[in-house]
Amino acid sequence: MPNKITKLFNIKFPIVQAGMVWNSGWRLASAASNSGVLGLLGAGSMYPEVLREHIQKCKKATGKPFGVNVPMLYPNIQDIMDIIVEEDVKIVFTSAGNPKTWTTWLQDQGIVVVHVVSSLKFALKAQEAGVDAIVAEGFEAGGHNGRDETTTLSLIPMVKEQIKIPIIAAGGIATGRAMLATMVLGADGVQIGSRFVASTESSAHQAFKQVVVNAKEGDTQLTLKELAPVRLIKNTFFNQVQELYKKGTTVEELKALLGRARAKKGMFEGDLENGELEIGQVSGLINDIKPVAQIVEDIMIEFELAKKEVQGL
């Protein structure tokens, strides 16, 4: 189904597999790309040389386009960008920072740049910075999120009214019906994260994948807004955060409780009580762990079925 997104990335379906920390290694990204969507490596949980290794392994595992998601708040950002250029990666998704900082530099290297935003205000800034497309991510999403808590249902139409570049919807999308709904609202494609966490090829710990499958409505909540808003599955660590809020916490206390490598402990190492378990609200719709190819096939079958149903309304 050719459209702006499939043409921009040279892929079969207008779907992006999100570049998630501790989940999106070379196995997931290459499997996604081989399935006709855009696979992304999650650089946010990789040291520069680890990223280089994943890029090289991804190249060997797929001949299809893939990219790297780069949160710009990390101190070794220059090293990461240099490696992306050296390894001839042609697609970069940037997030958690000012798009003006790297967009022109990357585009001068022949790289397509997409920036992740959570509001119309930031979408306009990204467009002004000259990015090739944006990901507009609603508050339903897992991982780091927008402080304004704007839902995908509201965000996509608002962005569509004022943005001329291609729009990729994210947040709460795990099915073909949700994909169609966001495209009806104005998106040109979708970015999917949580559904790919519960895939055979995800680098997440098996125990974390199972928690995602077991999650029900209300099992996640957005928290830690003072640091960086993140949607977490409720566990011992989450409850400790809530106790701090009840007594009236400070940013310093929250940072002390969070410590270092909390997300790695939960999602990658499988410490389900003391780790940070990032996942979207749509986890309540995820009931199994499947190979990426099957997930993509299921989504596209449902998308086409839903399209026919809508035509009959």
Description:
The protein is of the alpha/beta class. The protein folds into 2 domains: 4-204 and 285-311, TIM Barrel (Alpha-Beta Barrel); 216-282, no CATH class. Helices cover 43% and strands 15% of the residues. The protein contains 14 helices and 11 strands. It has helices at residues 4-9, 26-34, 48-61, 77-86, 103-108, 120-129, 152-162, 176-184, 194-197, 206-214, 236-247, 251-258, 262-268, 292-311, and strands at 15-17, 39-42, 66-71, 91-95, 112-117, 133-137, 143-144, 167-170, 189-192, 220-223, 230-233. The strands form 2 sheets. It has an 8-stranded parallel beta sheet. A 3-stranded antiparallel beta sheet has the order 7-11-10, with no helix packed on it.
What keywords describe this structure?
eight-stranded parallel β-sheet, TIM Barrel, 11 strands, 15% strand, alpha/beta, 313 residues, 14 helices, three-stranded antiparallel β-sheet
Strand order of the largest sheet: 1-9-8-6-5-4-3-2
> What is the number of beta strands?
11
Helix content: 40-55%
Task: Compute the number of helices.
Answer: 14
Proportion of strand residues? 15-25%
The 3D shape can be described as globular
Strand count, sense and closure of the main sheet?
Answer: 8 strands, parallel
Order of helices and strands: HEHEHEHEHEHEEHEHEHHEEHHHH
CATH topology of the largest domain: TIM Barrel
Distance between the termini: 22 Å
Determine and state the CATH class of the largest domain. Answer: Alpha Beta
Mean pLDDT: 95
What oligomeric state do these chains adopt?
Answer: single chain
Radius of gyration from the alpha-carbon trace, in angstroms:
18 Å
